[in-house]
Write a structure and sequence with these properties.
Layout lengths: L9 E5 L3 H13 L3 E5 L2 H11 L3 E5 L7 H7 L7 E6 L4 H9 L4 E4 L4 H18 L7 E4 L2 E4 L4 E4 L2 E3 L3 H12 L5 E2 H9 L8 H14 L7 E4 L3 E4 L6
Parallel strand pairs: 1-2, 1-3, 3-4, 4-5
Antiparallel strand pairs: 6-7, 7-8, 8-9, 10-12, 11-12
């Protein structure tokens, strides 16, 4: 990515270790990004509201709020990617972070050049997959998705979703009858070789079906041997 391609793109670096925050900030500034920093979880949430970054580089182990807690408390992260940083290298920790809505995960110590490359790729994926705000809303039967507010209503009742659950159902509803393999959905929604494998797609689909419930029981369908699709019709 050339410098002009990063013009006006914002990176928020959240780490309580000043040396790491300084090194990471410098690397992104050299690439042409606008960079801001935060040193704890509470400050991170405030900076997200005021700075509105394209990507947040988020340390997991921080004072006040951990990176996981920051992910849980984010109210609206439309168009913002998250890369988690941690000293842990356990698969459970990776899965937890990604289930909470993070897009990528790097273990300390890490190569700053690789971090920058991953952030660039994440920005490109977000720009490629972002639905224009003019679309606004998708309604299929009793299910309604608001793409701007990132909300789901089922039979006029607001249903709470994780960031990845929202991204998954929004993608499927925006492309009715299109069949996606599990690998397709991992690439489009998680945007990486997900640590938990394709099983995470099955788990998210099960959760979404429960949340849609009896209002639209045929909306989210399994295409056996292939993957999943959303449909406005009723399949026997």
């Amino acid at each position: 990515m050339k410098v002009r391609d990063t013009l006006n793109k914002k990176i928020l670096v959240v780490d309580d270790e000043k040396s790491i925050a300084t090194a990471v900030s410098y690397a992104f500034k050299r690439e042409g990004y606008i960079v801001d920093t935060a040193s704890d979880g509470e400050e991170a949430l405030e900076k997200v509201k005021s700075f509105r970054p394209d990507v947040m580089i988020l340390d997991v182990m921080m004072p006040k709020l951990t990176g996981y807690e920051v992910c849980r408390k984010l109210e609206n992260r439309r168009g913002m990617g998250i890369i988690l940083l941690t000293v842990k290298n356990d698969i459970v920790d990776k899965v937890l972070g990604l289930e909470l809505g993070a897009d990528d995960y790097m273990t300390k110590p890490f190569d700053v050049r690789e971090l920058v490359a991953r952030a660039k790729a994440l920005v490109r994926r977000i720009e490629k997959n972002e639905v224009p705000e003019a679309v606004g809303e998708i309604a299929v039967g009793k299910v309604k998705v608001n793409l701007i507010q990132r909300t789901l209503h089922v039979a006029n009742e607001l249903v709470k979703l994780t960031p990845k659950e929202f991204d998954l159902i929004a993608l499927l509803l925006a492309n009715l009858e299109r069949v996606y393999t599990r690998e397709d959905l991992l690439d489009l929604v998680w945007g990486m070789d997900y640590a938990g494998g394709t099983r995470t797609v099955d788990i998210h689909m099960q959760r979404l079906r429960k949340k849609v419930g009896e209002a639209e029981p045929y909306l989210l369908q399994t295409v056996y041997g292939v993957g999943y699709k959303a449909t406005a019709g009723i399949n026997e």
